[in-house]
Design a protein that fits this description.
Distance between the termini: 40 Å
Order of helices and strands: EEEEEEHHEEEEE
Helix content: under 10%
Radius of gyration: 16 Å
Number of helices: 2
Shape: globular
Number of strands: 11
Strand content: 25-35%
């Protein structure tokens, strides 16, 4: 499969060429470019019909190795079916297994981190989502505030660029 490229959004996709066109000039692909696609295309009927574009700033837990100011890489954007410790691991045929977990309210994510010890051990990243970046579905989590959403990216293998804004905490 083909390596990835930096798209017009400034983010990488895992399935395109190793250089990107920017203002008519070739620029090197980012360090988190892949030589092989690992993300599966969405199954039929996915994203769900009730998902829609919801541009704005959202928050997500990032990989533990990241520090404040770091930009996230592919390992902070694994889909649920790619996450070995998750209930949807190995189930790419399920639409829910492709949605990335985000919070619209930083307070809700911070509250969830206070309740769930393994969440505390991960830093928090901020990502700006635009209409062209896919669709979201409001999916509140019991006991974790009301601002949780699932995000189906466009393209399906988009690797968003987000900045870590809060450090991991001791559990």
């Amino acid at each position: 499969m083909a390596p990835s490229t930096l798209g017009s959004s400034g983010w990488a996709s895992r399935t395109k060429c190793p250089v990107a066109m920017e203002g008519g000039c070739c620029v090197p692909a980012p360090a988190f470019c892949f030589t092989e696609s690992v993300t599966e295309p969405f199954p039929p009927g996915c994203p769900p019909d009730d998902a829609s574009p919801m541009p704005g700033v959202y928050y997500r837990l990032a990989n533990r190795r990241h520090e404040v100011g770091d930009l996230t890489e592919h390992d902070s954007w694994l889909r649920p079916y790619e996450t070995k410790s998750g209930a949807l691991y190995g189930r790419p045929e399920l639409c829910d297994a492709h949605g990335l977990s985000l919070f619209a309210d930083l307070g809700d994510l911070s509250e969830a981190r206070d309740i769930v010890p393994q969440m505390r051990r991960k830093p928090v990243a901020s990502v700006q989502i635009h209409h062209r970046n896919g669709v979201l579905k409001h999916s509140p989590l019991t006991g974790h505030g009301d601002s949780h959403h699932d995000w189906w990216t466009d393209p399906f293998d988009l690797i968003p660029q987000a900045e870590v804004i809060l450090p991991k905490e001791d559990a």
